Amino acid sequence: MAAFLLELGTEELPASFVCDSTQQWQRLIPATLAEQFLTNDSINVYATPRRLAVLVTGLPLQQLDREEEIKGPPASSAFKDGKPTKAAEGFAKKQGVEIEALEVRPTDKGDFVFVLKKIPGRRTADILAELVPVWINKLEGKRFMRWADGDLKFPRPIRSLVALLDDNVLPITLVSGSDTVKSDRISQGHRVLYTPPTPALTQGETSTPTPPLAKGETSTPTATLAQGETSIPTATLTQGETSMIPTPPLTKGGTGGVSIPQAEDYVECLRAAYVEVDRQQRKNQIQAQVEAAATKQGGYADISDDLLEEVTDLVEWPNAVVGKFDDEFLILPPEVITTIIVTNQRYFPILKNPQYPELLPYFITISNGDPAKSAIIAAGNERVVRARLADGQFFYKADLAKPLEEYLPKLETVTFQEDLGTVRAKVDRLCKIASLLVNQLQLPETEQADVARAALLCKADLVTQMVYELPEMQGIMGQKYALASGESEAVATAIFEHYLPKGAGDNLPQTLTGQIVGISDKLDTLVSIFGLGMLPTGSSDPFALRRAANAIINIIWTAQLPVNLHKLLAQVVAEFTDIRPQTNPELLSQLSEFFLQRIRTLLEEEKNVDYDLVNAVLGENDPEYTERALRDLLDTLERSLFLQQIRNDNTLDKIYETVNRSTRLAAQGELDKIQLEPKTAVKPELFQKSSEQAFYDAVVQLVPQTKLSKQTRNYQLLVDSLTQIAPTVSNFFDGPESVLVMDSDPEIKRNRLNLLGLLRNHARVLADFGAIVNRS
Q1: CA 557 – CA 368 distance, rounded (Å)
Q2: What is the DSSP string of 146-182?
Q3: Which residues, 6 or more positions from 154, have their beta carbon under 8 angstroms from its beta carbon?
Q4: Cα(646)–Cα(614) distance, rounded to whole angstroms?
Q5: Under a CB-based contact definition with an 8 Å cutoff, are residues 241 and 247 in contact?
Q6: Fewest beta carbons less than 10 Å away: which of 135, 620, 680, 716?
Q7: Nearest-CA neighbor of 523 among 437, 603, 624, 629?
Q8: Please, are residues 457 and 482 in contact by the beta-carbon 8 Å criterion?
């Protein structure tokens, strides 16, 4: 068995691509090896800012010979009177076999010619040489580039290629115009920390390049430290000191080649050259170093997942360095300091307490430089942070010089969208929507006042100096400035919350005022952008309209708000059309369909409701069901979850057959889908069998249960009643007193179809059973 190593050496890659490319190779490489019948023991993908690598172990040196059954032409066209035709001869020639090797076998579509072809296994080395360019060219990402004068695209130029099958270099050449990269066994060590070892010179000798290492050798320096050289400190961190990281001795100098004796030595050889190629190991080291550094300063590291992931892909040999900023900057809101440190600088802040965002005047940076120069690195970082915090302090004091309300006129100078006017105009629109919502929910006057005030001020911070310089602070600074201006806690909190959620997995607004203002803001954006005809298409959604619709639905569901979205959409569309008479008359139906699509997606993907059950709740080409779904989103959610529950516990199976059969037959009748009362829809005097009377009596008893179930949303009452009526309906169809529904007498036929229509209508209070797929 053999091991194969592939390493692409590049110039510094974007951090996002480093992580993404490893995930792509983790999917692509096992799949392509399986397609080539190459088994293996393990596949490990490695990555740093300057390389992508994969190590495959347990590969056979050659594919196993295999047999493949190949289907040919129909026997009727391959043989005439027992003799092969040109079709048979052509098939045999194409497969490289004699006519005698052809076999005739029966299939579902008649007799066909087959051949059992023996395929000899190919050398693994030859297959890998073909696969490597495929693995490289199939990587995807943003902003791929060409370099030199060739067509090969990659995020950064490829400078080296290591390809080893055990200890042998696999000859591979990447060509991009006049730029050619040939495979060898030489990787690159750390730019700063690693210098290839050279033997001491005797008198008269001259320096020569270090020859490639022989099998079994490593590139780890073994000489003791010369005067002036340093080793990596192992003491606990103080300001400017480095983290505790076990490493080989440190030599002075730039960078150089690392000869890889054989494929499985890769990780250790690079580790000896101050490059940790194992991404998870690097990530673990960073987290441990940052936590240790924060503990040394008497605090707790604030380690966000996003920052940890990004920093992991910015360094090859992590080294935590502590920096400090002046205590005077702690008067700034912690969110401002954190944004500057984390978002702008990619540093880790230190908290006084993990439960409260109060900061200590320290930060931690992960350096890729020389640990011996940590004090210099810390000083440089401190200068940058100090300058940014000084700017933030100036903006903060300037913004506090006037109340938040006084920033409203300046919103008239900021364009929301070219055809929709200014942000101030948007504020006016969302205030009207908030008023509509308040009326729907019938809020008391105090809450009405909070909603009106928060809606008016929610965008005011956009024209403050702080938010202009740090757009990530919108809403956050609005809350701070509102409190400083004497606004109520409810108003200030709503200003912050109305932007939530900011992305997938983010928190939703927790206060009623924040929920109403948030829905109003997002609904205005949806109606306005749709009104301009700028609907999202495919992956293009520049105004994040899908996210806005998802947020509205999730806020209503989570907060249990009894919002009639169908009515609200109609009102907002009417207001918009008054302002822009040229608006597409289909705007309301477009928005309704868009929201139904988002409801469907959320139910299936987030609530794990089966697709057919979602169809049964939302309806398919059913305006009554569509309107009902939007009119009462809470009921839509409850019915969907309940249907999934009774499917999972097999209760649905007890009523499915009778209700579904009744629904399908009722479609041939004329009874509307709302009627529940049997006394106005069915004539008992037309009954011919006792099963009809029993069916009728059961439906009469079903009416109060259905109405109570609908009123209280206790759909278990309805399901229990349908379960009880199921044997009666089965007897109507198939029992001793069964009837022919489609009787030759039109009156009797109509009467029986109306009976079935009534049962369908009662079941429709829960779902359209005609859309449910039988899975039993």
Answers
A1: 47
A2: E-TTS--EESS-EEEEEEEETTEE---EEEETTEEEE
A3: 10, 136, 139, 144, 145, 147
A4: 14
A5: no
A6: 680
A7: 437
A8: yes
CA 375 vs CA 152, 246, 289, 366: distances in Å: 42, 20, 16, 13
Distance CA 748, CA 685 (A): 10
Per-residue confidence (pLDDT) for residue 129, from 0 to 100: 95
Q: Does a cis peptide bond (omega within 30 degrees of 0) precede residue 501?
A: yes
The Cα-based distances of 310 to 16, 20, 288 in angstroms read 7, 11, 16
What is the rounded distance in angstroms from the CA atom of residue 466 to the CA atom of residue 250? 45
DSSP H/E element including 353:
strand 348-353
Structure tokens at 613: 């059950």
Q: C-alpha angle 533/433/710, rounded to 5°?
A: 100
* Confidence (pLDDT) at 323: 97
Measured between alpha carbons, how far is 330 from 344 in angstroms, rounded to an integer? 18
Residue 253 pLDDT: 34
CA angle 48, 51, 56 (to 5 degrees): 100
In this prediction, residue 776 carries a pLDDT of 67
DSSP labels for 299-342?
SEE---HHHHHHHHTT-SS-EEEEEE--GGGGGS-HHHHHIIII
Helix axes 623-631, 587-605, angle to 10 degrees: 70
Which residues of the chain fall below pLDDT 50? Answer: 200-254
- Beta strand pairing status for 319-324 and 348-353? unpaired
Q: With contact defined as beta carbons under 8 Å apart, do 4 and 263 qualify?
A: yes
Q: Are 491 and 417 in contact (CB under 8 A)?
A: no
What pLDDT score does 42 carry?
96
Burial (CB count within 10 angstroms: exposed 0-12, middle 13-18, buried 19+), residue 386: middle
The three-class DSSP label of residue 422 is strand
- The tokens for 356 are 């409260």
Query: Residue 632, SS3?
Result: coil
Q: Which residue has the tokens 């920096």?
A: 323
CB 23 within 8 A of CB 50: no
